[in-house]
Amino acid sequence: MNYSLIFLALMLLPVAASAEAIASVEKPTETSSSPLRAQLKARQSTVISSEMNARINQLKLRDGDHFNEGQTLVSFNCTLEEAQLNKAKATLEKAVKTYEVKQRLEELHSIGALELAVAKAEEGEAKADMQVAQAVTSRCAIKAPFSGKVTDVTAKTYQTVKAGDPLLEILDDKDLEVEFMAPSTALPELTVGRHFKVTLNETNKAYQAEITRLGGKVDPVSQTIKVYGRIIDKATELLPGMSGAVELNAKP
To answer: β-pairing, 166-171 with 45-49?
Structure first.
């Protein structure tokens, strides 16, 4: 048996292992070369819920319908609340006139200061009651906080709902942003204003975009950071939920 050859082979094993380790480090992995995935999301979206126990009088919007800011989305049957408001207005009017009369009587020294102070307090109480009634009736109609589109309707006209019940879901379909996860090692290159390209599956088109902000933290498990951007190209076909691939090295 040639012991010298065996000894030489054992000496060369660590060197071969080190070379293999270096080659595996230098060789790019599939994860690093895989494309980044992005999704379009609405910057403004919310679920409209009822603020009172009442019966729905009007809910004409359906899934996919557009609406304008300030438009009435839902209205409720508020006969009792409106009657209470009218009563509060009448009580306030009476209190105001009583206070005015007692002011004149006090000037003529026909009543004392205490009686005048009580009349003033009653006027203030009536004014507060009217403000409460106005606040209640303001909930009888829900106005759109922004212009956009309905994405889900969970209630129906003439349905009786409770406070907190969801009625419909809305979003601003004109103010969309691109959202994707990027490796944290790319942070030096992920600067606000940097251009990139996103190719959406649903339209099979590529769009120019730019980074608008970065997430507030790096995910310690995946070592990634959330990146937000906006599409620069004018496109009316875009919808929330569309997704595609991101190319960071794309030029504007």
So the answer is: antiparallel
144-200 residue pLDDT tens: 999 999 999 999 999 999 999 999 999 999 889 999 999 999 999 999 999 999 999
Q: What are 228's strand-pairing partners?
A: 179, 213
- DSSP result, 111-179: S-HHHHHHHHHHHHHHHHHHHHHHHHHGGGEEEPSSSEEEEEE---TT-EE-TT-EEEEEE-TTSEEEE
Amino acid 135 reads A
Domain 79-138: CATH superfamily, name plus number? Helix hairpin bin (1.10.287.470)
C-alpha distance from residue 79 to each of 55, 83, 140, 192, 203 (Å): 11, 6, 10, 54, 50
| Whole-prediction pTM | 0.71
Alpha carbon distance 211, 193 (integer Å): 5
209 in Cβ contact with 192 (< 8 Å): no
What would the two tokens of residue 176 be? 């969309």
Measured CA to CA, the distance from residue 69 to residue 71 in angstroms comes to 6
Residue ranges per structural domain of the chain:
34-43+174-247, 79-138
User: How many whole angstroms separate alpha carbon 203 and alpha carbon 243?
Assistant: 10
Query: Domain spanning 34-43+174-247 has what CATH number?
Result: 2.40.30.170
Give the span between the Cα atoms of 3 and 52, in whole angstroms. Answer: 93
